[in-house]
Amino acid sequence: STPFEFSELFSLGGKVKKVDAKTISFETQIAPNPKPEIRKAIITKDTAITKFEITKTGEKISGRESKIKLSDIRTGDTIVAAANENIKDKKIFTATKIQILVPLSI
């Protein structure tokens, strides 16, 4: 059987490798290619930057999204970078949204 492959991708998830004044470089893996690759998201004044935190209270799990600054993003953070174009094969793209995913701490 052939491995599953998306023809279009409008968002990519990965681990932050480098953050500077206008870009975020991150490592991502796109099926069916097993080799990770580096992509660069360009940040503009219109890019929404948020943090999504998952919390657990008793048995209830909930998520909360809050606005953050580019300077709050650190190397090693897990992010999802979204664009309003197909970015499957783009090494550099303009991000419409960057979201840090904060794992559930138990």
Spell out the key features of this protein.
106 residues, mainly beta, single chain
What can you tell me about this protein's structure?
- There is one protein chain.
- The chain is globular and about 40 Å long.
- A hairpin with an 8-residue loop joins strand 2 (23-28) and strand 3.
- Strands 5-4-8-6-1-2-3-7 form an eight-stranded mixed β-sheet, with no helix packed on it.
- It has no helices and eight strands.
- It is mainly β and 106 residues long.
- It has strands at 11-19, 23-28, 37-42, 48-57, 60-67, 78-82, 92-94, 97-102.
- Fraction of helical residues: under 10%
How do the strands of the widest beta sheet line up side by side? Answer: 5-4-8-6-1-2-3-7
- What string gives the helices and strands in order? EEEEEEEE
Average pLDDT, to the nearest integer? 92
Distance between the termini: 39 Å
* Structural category: mainly beta
What is the radius of gyration computed over CA atoms, rounded to a whole number of angstroms?
Answer: 15 Å
- Tell the overall outline: globular
Tell me the number of helical segments per DSSP (H or I, 4 or more residues long). Answer: 0
- Give the low-confidence spans: none
Largest sheet descriptor: 8 strands, mixed
Q: In percent terms, what proportion of residues is strand?
A: over 45%
Structure in a nutshell:
The protein has no helices and eight strands.
Topology, element by element:
Layout lengths: L10 E9 L3 E6 L8 E6 L5 E10 L2 E8 L10 E5 L9 E3 L2 E6 L4
Parallel strand pairs: 3-7, 4-8
Antiparallel strand pairs: 1-2, 1-6, 2-3, 4-5, 6-8
